[in-house]
Amino acid sequence: MSCGNIWGSKIIDEGSAIRFYTSKPALERNEAISLLGQCANNYAHWMTELLPKLLMVDASSRYDGWPLLIDASAVRSFEECIRLFNTKRRKIIVVDSWAPVILTKVVHVSAPAYEPYRPDRIKKQEACNYINIFSPEVMKMLRDEAHRVVKAESVVPYRRVYLDRGKAGNLRSITNREQVNGVLRDYKFETIEPAKLSISEQINVCREAECIIAPIGAALINMIFATEGCKVFALVGKYDYGNYYYYSNLAGVLGCEFYYVLGEPVTAGGQDMHFDYTVDIEGLRASLEAGL
Question: Which residue ranges does the record assign to the Glycosyltransferase 61 catalytic domain (predicted)?
Fold first, then answer.
């Protein structure tokens, strides 16, 4: 096709545009294990999709001595976690965003959990047409390894724990947070903000819990560290287009007893699964009476 004049114009949707990043020099290595993936600096994605791959590779001595490729954002966010679970003390190769990597050999492990990549989903209201799937064997492997590498310093069994997101100013804020805290105090729950704890402390808190309550979000992923049979209550808004499979299916493969406590959404615009919401206090009390 010969070049010619271009007539007219077209507005391109910024969210759908494809950009190419080719100016960065390539990182060249002979061999490596890839722990690269989408949203690597997100706690839920890291704990369920990426970190378990390290344990799967470590189960074989064939790749002993191979370094790890890890996204720079994950290294910054989860330095302690990487150090804790990198029991074979593999070298870490930090990969910046959009940096090309050239390898002679690479180990790429199939994802033990998967959340489809949809960059527009926070902005659009539409039904989710997929069901989240987790590998029971690998999620339990992660729990067992966490219990092995973290020493239980002071075991306090049968704890009732509320994992509070705090005043993070994030998506899905609870508007009546103080009322929720008051009800949970009546039922002898400890209020803990995971963001203020080390990963080792978070593991120990959850391994000792007989019951965990948390809003949906990163904190709730810590049920991975709970023992089988732990009761888990998830606080969430009642959404027409919400996907409620993620946390319930994760709880199912872990052997946890799982409940949703639905609240009333109070904001509009964008994807409704991320709206702020008001917890139904009487509904919360009724759920605790029935489930505990």
Answer: 43-232
